[in-house]
Design goal:
A: mainly alpha; MetI-like fold; 17 helices; about 0% strand; B: mainly alpha; two-stranded antiparallel ribbon; 14 helices; 2 strands
């Protein structure tokens, strides 16, 4: 842990003092920077292009050669996307589904993670191994029976139908469990028990607050994933008013083939929540991905 | 004193056993609904995928007629399935090779040669967190045959306008390029974490022995990074085998046939939800599962033997 922090501060994985070393290498860091900047430009280009197109009037969208900076910028695409379809409703649907699932994932992951980490009870290992083993099964392999189940439960075209697969995230349980094993002092829990606190109160008042940073990482991860969900909503939603924003965008491009102006405006709007989270919490996001990756 | 006695697990006092009962009650009330929901929405569907694959079925009666392994034997003769499997494999290989090589190069450059690389990391990572649908839409627009940015760029070199997504053969690689762009940042971040976890001790020792920077990379960093590289390889391959949304969004009514480029999940989707062949689609899903399982086992095996 300590070595990692030192490296991050000096940006130098080798143990030598940064400055002398880097000055010596200046001559060939310049071409590296040029390559990296071109690469960074390519990474950003689709977003810039999306953003630019969303402000162009229809004639300019199909201008040849294309223009990067809109010559006569307009907001009409943003108005149009709300006229052509109930876009506000779709945004609301996405937001409801994502936030409810995010909160549920945080609660189920922390509760189950806490129980698996701290308590001894019959069948504990059995349950935990089942969760671990099913974690690797891709959603696409079991979506058919899940769909049939939702059909039997009359949950096609309902919020609970869209949310059903996202209530519990096996990775989240595993992640929180690791976190509690590493950072939760059991003496503290025992002390609270002696003071007469019930188990739920301990969970709610001690365990949850103590794991807030891990929960925040999990919440970000859950939000990004559920917001981007596509194939499941595609299966369970076939009425217009329950579409999520992703479904609406994908459907819109076939319905109005060449109307790229409003389509790009809609795309920009659908990116905004994620972009906002990314800008505000960039460090936590990279950390949470790094943690999820290194499981 | 009291605290020590009570906190013992085998505490035999009356208070201790009532605490024990409270704990078990908490476990029971807390875990039962979670395992129940998990069982219904995850474990049961997984099991049913396997059983369903042994049936001839339609949407109304999923388990219409038990036919044993017949679905699997007809998979072997199904050209659409074989084409989809081949395409998905090509897609996975293309994505993995390009994104791991580039991700590794980026991770090495950003940790070893660039002092303050935070902004670069952020930019290269950005596409990974962005939702796939709007991203695929803008890439489709970039590939547009008449007004696309890529055609404009190629026109500088006198190359005439291309319809990249029109034929499955070129369309597949066009989507590979997009996918590489999307996952490269993830691979980079994981590899950077891996590089930072290597004790500086090794590098210092090598440097004292007179190794230059490239031989340190070649003989110390990359070999020690092998488990992480393998992890990234496997995760990227699994992700690529599950590709669906980008292909669905980018090739809807853009291809010559009007259909999407055949891929594995696309076949599952079509068979199950267009032609209502739930059993047949389930057997394809089982094949996908086997691929993913094999990849996961490979990773476990190598990581175990390495550490």
């Amino acid at each position: 842990m300590a070595t990692v922090e030192i490296n991050e501060k000096s940006g130098n994985v080798f143990g030598l003092t940064g400055n002398a070393r880097f000055r010596r290498e200046l001559w060939w860091r310049i071409p590296l920077h040029i390559i990296l900047i071109i690469g960074a430009g390519l990474m950003l280009l689709p977003f810039i292009w999306m953003f630019a197109t969303s402000f162009k009037p229809p004639t300019e969208v199909v201008a040849w050669p294309p223009t990067f900076i809109p010559q006569s910028p307009t907001l009409e695409n943003y108005g149009k996307v709300f006229e052509l379809m109930p876009f506000a409703r779709y945004f609301f649907n996405s937001l409801v589904v994502t936030i409810v699932c995010m909160i549920t994932i945080c609660i189920t992951s922390s509760l189950a993670g806490y129980i698996f980490a701290i308590f001894r009870f019959p069948l504990r290992n059995f349950f935990f191994i089942i969760i671990l083993a099913t974690a690797i099964v891709p959603f696409e392999t079991y979506m058919i029976p899940l769909y049939l189940l939702m059909k039997d439960l009359k949950s096609i075209n309902s919020y609970q139908g869209i949310m059903a697969p996202y209530f519990i995230m096996s990775f989240g349980i595993f992640f929180m469990r690791q976190n509690y094993i590493a950072f939760l002092p059991e003496e503290l829990l025992d002390a609270a028990r002696i003071d007469g606190a019930g188990e739920w109160k301990i969970y709610w008042r001690i365990v949850l607050p103590l794991s807030s940073s891990a929960l925040a990482a999990l919440a970000i991860y859950a939000f990004i994933n559920v917001w981007a969900a596509f194939i499941w909503p595609l299966l369970v939603v076939n009425t217009s008013d329950l579409k999520t924003i992703e479904l609406a965008l994908a459907g819109f491009q076939t319905a109005y083939t060449v109307e790229y102006g409003p389509l790009m405006a809609g795309s920009v709007i659908s990116l905004l929540p994620i972009l906002l989270i990314f800008i505000l919490l960039r460090r936590q996001i990279i950390e949470s991905v790094a943690m999820t990756g290194m499981k | 004193m009291a605290r020590n006695i009570l906190s013992r697990k085998e505490g035999s006092s009356r208070l201790g056993s009532s605490l024990q009962r409270q704990k078990l009650l908490f476990v029971f009330i807390g875990l039962t609904p979670i395992m129940l929901v998990y069982g219904i929405t995850r474990i049961w569907p997984i099991i049913r995928t396997f059983t369903l694959s042994l049936y001839d079925s339609d949407l109304v009666t999923p388990e219409k007629k038990f036919i044993g392994l017949e679905n699997y034997t007809s998979l072997v003769d199904d050209d659409a399935f074989k084409q989809a499997f081949l395409n998905t494999t090509l897609f996975a290989v293309g994505t993995v090779v390009a994104s791991v090589v580039l991700g590794l190069a980026l991770a090495l450059i950003l940790t070893q040669f660039i002092p303050r690389s935070g902004l670069y990391q952020l930019i290269y990572f950005l596409p990974f967190v962005m939702p796939i649908v709007p991203v695929a839409i803008v890439w489709r627009w970039i590939y547009d045959p008449s007004y696309g940015l890529l055609n404009w760029f190629l026109s500088w070199f006198g190359i005439p306008k291309q319809a990249f997504l029109f034929y499955p053969e070129t369309g597949l690689w066009a989507i590979v390029v997009m996918n590489v762009w999307k996952v490269i940042g993830y691979n980079m971040v994981i590899l950077i974490v891996g590089i930072r976890a290597i004790p500086t001790l090794y590098n210092e020792a090598a440097e004292i022995d007179g190794a230059n920077r490239f031989s340190v990379l070649r003989y110390i960093t990359v070999p020690l990074l092998k488990p992480v590289i393998l992890f990234v390889l496997v995760v990227t391959t699994i992700g690529a085998y599950n590709v669906f949304t980008s292909v669905y969004v980018m090739t809807q009514s853009t291809t010559a046939s009007g259909n999407n480029i055949p891929i594995l999940v696309g076949e599952i989707y079509n068979n199950a939800f267009r032609y209502s062949k739930m059993g047949y689609a389930s057997s394809e899903a089982v094949i996908l599962f086997v691929v993913v399982l094999a990849l996961t086992l490979i990773q476990f095996r190598f990581v175990r033997s390495d550490t």
